[in-house]
Heat-shock protein (Zooshikella ganghwensis), 152 residues
Amino acid sequence: MRKFDFSPLYRSAIGFDHIFNLLDSATRVEQGQPSYPPYNIELLDEDHYRITMAVAGFTLQELSIVSEQNTLLITGKKAEEKEQRHFLHQGIAARSFERRFQLADHIQVVNASLENGLLHVELVREIPEAMKPKQIPIGANNMDSNLIEQNS
């Protein structure tokens, strides 16, 4: 994969450093990138998303979801087992994990549920009213009427 140099953009763009860091990390080929636990990211409609993560064997008490400053952190910490078990074959992973997701501006976590070994995290984009497009009514030119009144 080709390596892109984003340093010229840092010199002329202010406040976009987090975007350049995301692009830089996305283009970097990392060895040993974690693939556990497997997950899906779904676009349910224009402003609704769902992350579904396979967390078989984890209880609600062993899972944690934290959303802070455009980062969603999902962790699973397996509790110490009281009894020692001897497996002939262990194909079900039972290790702790930490998975980070970068969230765009105005993406909020609205719900999370655990069902049949799948953790579902519901996200929604909530754009503040001040940032939504506004229709501006077109009326008579008020400047012309103010000038007529001043000359009278």
